[in-house]
Amino acid sequence: MLHELRAYYEQDREHGRLREGRGRLEFWRTQDVLRRMLPPTPARVLDVGGGTGVHAKWLAADGYDVELLDPIPLHVERARELTGIAARLGDARQLPVPDESVDVVLLLGPLYHLTERADRVGALAEARRAVRPGGLVVAATISRYSAVHDGVRQGFYLDDGFRTAADSAAAGGIMRSPRSGFTAYFHEPEEIPLEFADAGFPEVKHYGLQGAFWLYGDVDDWLDDPERRTLMLDALRSMESVPSLLGVSGHMLTLAHRDR
Questions:
Q1: The pTM is what?
Q2: Which residue from 199, 197, 229 is spatially nearest to 213, judged by alpha carbons?
Q3: Residue-wise pLDDT tens digits, 201-243
Q4: Which keywords has UniProt assigned to this entry (predicted)?
Q5: Comparing C-alpha atoms, which of 234, 227, 253 is closest to residue 112?
């Protein structure tokens, strides 16, 4: 699994994903939810699987004490170039930090790269170990049907290989992508709280990030226009936790506090 990830991410294909195009919708919505839910600065944030620092950068600028962990050397190298961020190699399943030593643990990528449920629960349990009582754990997941939705939108679904992979993901959660070359896990909204519960978090909050808007053909035009972008983000905020809409989003955020 790690070999697959390194082969993909060492191509430096992740660096611009949330910084341009419709990926900005996921970025701005993640930022929006986190800014409403994070504790006051200067809380200590552990950004696990933080890539090249797309979120760590604004968190540090906001005044948080940010440490980024990532299993990809290129990502760590790039993140170290950012101001105010400590970055080192690390694995979500075995965090190199003491018990109860941080205020927030972000898992904004690891869970969908862990195809075994035991590994996902283990990563959440590690986050719980690392965070202080009352602290916050946030995890991102990919929605079960996102490959079918995005494949139809972009035309990939016409390809037999992609269609087979997307249909398999919709049926069982495992996405073996013929385009990226790695295997990922896509969640049903209702299974995420069960994984959190098994890791010691009895209560969670769910947020759909992009709603159905990420599938619209003119979404880039809305994101490029500050006035229309504000309207879109306000609309998404108003329906972000509606249960019937969660799985339509390409990505979901789940938040939980460690019991005191």
A1: 0.95
A2: 229
A3: 999 999 999 999 999 999 999 999 999 999 999 999 999 999 9
A4: Methyltransferase, Transferase
A5: 253
